[in-house]
Each structure stands twice: as C-alpha cells, then as structure tokens.
Amino acid sequence: MNDMSGGVSLVNWTAFSQARSELGANFVRILGYFREDGVKSVEQIEAAMRAQNAAALVIPAHTLKGESRQFGADPLSDLAETIETIARDCVERHDTPTEALQYVAQLRPLFENTLALLEKEASPLVARRQGFGRRVAGI
C-alpha cells in the first residue's frame, strides 16, 4: 500500500492488524497513548538536538522506536532507532550529535503523517461508513 511517501508504506499493515487484534478493545486507547507519548518524544528529541545534548536524545528516541514498532510504523521506528544509535555513540565518544540533525529534521513530518494514517485506519467511523446511509436494495 502506498502512503504519501513516494511508494514506500509508512505502516506495516500486517503488524498494525496484529496489534489491533491483540489489543482488542484497548487498541484505540493505547493508540491515543502513542499519540501523546510520540508528541512528547518528538518535542524532547528536537529540544535535545537544539541543545546538542546527545544523552537527552537517547530515551525519547528509544521510546518512540519501540512504540512505533508496536503499531507497524516501521519507517518511523527505524528513523528513531537511527537517532538513538547516533546519540548513544556520541555519548560514548563524548561528542555532540551533529550527525543526527538530518534525521531529527525528518522526524516530525514522518511522525505526523504516520499518526494520521494510523488514526484514520483505527477510527470507528471507518467501519461504519461502509453501509451507513445507503439504502439496502429491496427495502
């Protein structure tokens, strides 16, 4: 499935469906937590990047990586993992995370586009729209 990204899917829909199935009635609530945590993580990553603080990049990037993967948001998870890896390497070298800048710059738009797709797919209205408001033949 193409997702606004030039042919590469922003969501692994098989993993998304599995998460929805496993989480059941809790799925929409947990997706809401992903939204809240993701917004905070992106903000913390951007602030740490502005401050050139590699150590402050690690935890929010790690959090975003894991939560994204749970919903099948593989490109977002991979990007967060790249930022986390660079940050960890910089911490070990006592260096500034300059090389992470190009990845951090991609993070917010990727997060927002991915979240929009996840929420659109998870919306209870998606299931209702299929037959709602249409006349059934023979009635």
Question: Summarize this, please?
Answer:
The chain has helices spanning 13-23, 27-50, 54-70, 74-93, 101-122, 124-129. It is mainly α and 139 residues long.
What does it look like?
72% of the residues lie in helices and 0% in strands. It is built from six helices and no strands. The longest helix has 24 residues, at 27-50.
Give the SSE layout.
Blueprint: H1 13-23, H2 27-50, H3 54-70, H4 74-93, H5 101-122, H6 124-129
- The low-confidence parts are 1-6, 126-134
N-to-C CA distance? 36 Å
Order of helices and strands: HHHHHH
Largest sheet: none
How much helical structure, as a percent, in the residues? over 70%
Number of strand segments: 0
- Residues in β-strands, percent: under 5%
Mean pLDDT, nearest integer?
A: 88
Strand-pairing-aware structural class:
mainly alpha
Rg result: 18 Å
Instruction: Based on Cα principal axes, name the global outline.
Output: elongated
Task: Specify the number of helices.
Answer: 6
